[in-house]
Automatic annotation (TrEMBL):
InterPro entries per the UniProt record, alphabetical: Ribosomal_mS34
PANTHER family, sorted: 28S RIBOSOMAL PROTEIN S34, MITOCHONDRIAL (PTHR28589), SMALL RIBOSOMAL SUBUNIT PROTEIN MS34 (PTHR28589:SF1)
Domain of life, per lineage: Eukaryota
Matches recorded under Pfam families: MRP-S34
UniProt-recorded name of the protein: Mitochondrial ribosomal protein S34
Lineage: Eukaryota, Metazoa, Ecdysozoa, Arthropoda, Hexapoda
Amino acid sequence: MATIKYIGRTTDFKGKTLWEIVGNLKNFGVGRVVVRSMFERYPEPSFMRIVKVDALPNEETRKVKVTVEKTFRGRKYPKLVEIDSVSYKADYRLLHKHEEEAYCRGQARTEKIIPSEIDLPPLLREFVQRETGKVDPKIVVKMKPGHNSIYRLAREGEKPNVDISMGLGKPASPSLYANCEL
């Protein structure tokens, strides 16, 4: 009996390329909804509604330029997005027309509010207390804003809904810390 041995890179992609999908649809799938399987791991819906399809000159690469209305993790992009460099990946699937409405409705994205100041890590807190004499030193949180981010800093007077605490956590062996003050 012969044994099969696979050689080469493996992939996590599931589905077809955009070339295969739009090539088999009437009007090249304009108005239809395509989902990238890699993005189905998120609880919020991620999908693309096809607006325009253009073929690219090099047929060997089997790439296609698709202009879409993109929704990533429940947030719709304000402008149309062109997909061409990743269109060759076999990671797309076409939603059936009867599934489109329920899938695109999805669930709303909840915004997570992070405190603007957090405690220092325990050892650094001890050093800062000795140097400055402050009883409870805090560090200011800086965040880089992004159009896909569901996190934001709490404004003045606003209560955060995410708790960030510094500490040692639960030790692997509590008996080692039995006589220590934490």
